[in-house]
Amino acid sequence: SADGEAAVAAVERVAERLERERDYLTELDSAIGDADHGGNMARGWASAAEAVRELDDPDPATVAKATGRTLMSEVGGASGPLYGGSLVFASVELDDGLTPESAVAFAETYLEKVRDRGDASVGDQTMVDALVPLVHTFKKSIEVDGLPPVVALAKAVDAAERGAAFTVPIRARKGRASYLGWRSVGHKDPGATSTLFVAESLLETAR
Ligand code: ADP
Ligand code: MG
Ligand code: MG
User: Fold this and answer.
1) How far is CA 68 from CA 18, 23, 73, 78, in A?
2) Closest Cα to atom 19, ligand 1: which residue?
3) What is the Cα–Cα distance from 51 to 134, expressed in whole angstroms?
4) Could you identify the atom of ligand 1 that is nearest to the CA of residue 29?
5) By alpha-carbon position, which residue is closest to atom 6 of ligand 1?
6) How far apart are CA 126 and CA 124, in angstroms?
7) Rounded to whole angstroms, how far apart are CA atoms 191 and 124?
8) How far apart are CA 76 and CA 118, in angstroms?
9) For ligand 1, which residues put their CB under 6 angstroms from it?
């Protein structure tokens, strides 16, 4: 379907962006982690782009599922299961196609799964700090404000950017960075930052 082809293009766009951001994300992860987030994301999404290009007659759900499966198998550590497992789980929301409603359901289910798996809340200096404002703003913009999906996504990306910035002054309470205690203060979370880059790439594809 046309939406399936657009989903493949979205994964390719994410992969290109994360390849460009590889060194930056690694730099962020070297300050408060083990300096592998740039490589994890660039490698994982490059493999995902390869995998979705090989699908015949892709639709949004199969693209999301294949992307999630590839991230789960290619990326270890914390971010592989969080990104990959949650994508596989949320992909069922797209089984009947991509609509504003199913896109909101997909985003909410993805967030719910990240929270279930990682047990992190807003303020723990993780990807959740970007994801919560991203998903909540997207949902509100569509369901309450009745905005077109691309406008809703643009507002959601702005909210995610503020969420990623909010990880700087706070202390990590989940993941590797939490081992640093107060020394994690003053650093931007790598996973919140990569989540923002993924959302920005989706917006660029949607425009
Ligand atoms: P690892 O820490 O295993 O090396 P990555 O470096 O690829 O994995 O990913 C680190 C990112 O994963 C962190 O910046 C954070 O955003 C996210 N993360 C780690 N633990 C959790 C958690 N429990 N819940 C949500 N996100 C988490
Ligand atoms: Mg790491
Ligand atoms: Mg690691």
Assistant:
1) 16, 23, 9, 14
2) 175
3) 27
4) 6
5) 37
6) 6
7) 12
8) 14
9) 29, 33-34, 36-37, 40, 77-79, 82, 118-120, 126-128, 174-176, 189-192
d(CA 117, CA 127): 12
Q: How sure is the predictor about 109, in pLDDT bands with cuts at 50, 70 and 90? A: very high
Q: What is the pLDDT of residue 185?
A: 97
Checking ipTM against 0.85, whether it exceeds it is yes
Ligand nearest the Cα of residue 30 is 2
Between the alpha carbon of residue 78 and those of residues 69, 144, 176, the distances in Å are 15, 34, 9
Total length of the chain: 207
Which ligand is the nearest neighbour of the Cα of 83? 1
* Distance, CA of 92 to CA of 121 (rounded, Å): 24
C-alpha to C-alpha distance for 69 and 86, rounded to whole angstroms: 10
Q: Which ligand is nearest to the CA of 86?
A: 1
Residue 52 tokens, joined: 């979705």
CB 118 within 8 A of CB 174: yes
Rg (CA), the chain: 16
What is the per-residue pLDDT across 180-205, written as a single tens digit (0 to 9) for each? Answer: 999 999 999 999 999 999 999 999 99
Contact 25, 18 (CB under 8 A): yes
Compute the distance from residue 32 Cα to the ligand 2 centre, in Å. Answer: 8
Burial (CB count <10 Å: 0-12, 13-18, 19+), residue 149: middle
